[in-house]
Amino acid sequence: MTNDRSAALAALLLRLSLGVMFLAHGLYMKIMTFGLTGTMGFFGSLGYPPVLGAVVAIAETLAGIALVLGIWTRAVSLLAVPILIGATLQHAGNGWVFSNAGGGWEFPVFWIAALAVQALLGDGAYAVKLKRLIGYPAATRAA
């Protein structure tokens, strides 16, 4: 049986998983392993403007941080979808299975579905609430 508590924990687990995956792809792989220069060169070799490699690496890193913390979860999840659509299109010619040479399209498509689920679920448990952090006043009632 699903209840509010288990749904909030499920959203947390999904949010943390997606966030760590984005950090692994953006920060660790693209920035720390290949570097921005290497990532830009790779994107250029695919026919994209090289600067798009830096934009994607930074966007994935920021999305990962935001998701792990639970900041703007719905918006971040939806804004990250175009990155995965681009990855899907890039891998589409390699077949379905991601273990194929060049990687297939199964992983980015699943990632899109997971981001859509996260956008529908929202923050879940233990999310940073920016309204509290930046001092928004509590809602007031009309007298």
Automatic annotation (TrEMBL):
Listed InterPro entries: DoxX (IPR032808), DoxX-like_oxidoreductase (IPR051907)
Gene Ontology CC terms: plasma membrane
Keyword hit for Membrane: yes
Stored Pfam families: DoxX
Localization per Swiss-Prot or TrEMBL: Cell membrane
Main location: membrane
PANTHER family attached to this UniProt entry: INNER MEMBRANE PROTEIN YPHA-RELATED (PTHR33452:SF1), OXIDOREDUCTASE CATD-RELATED (PTHR33452)
UniProt name for this protein: Uncharacterized protein
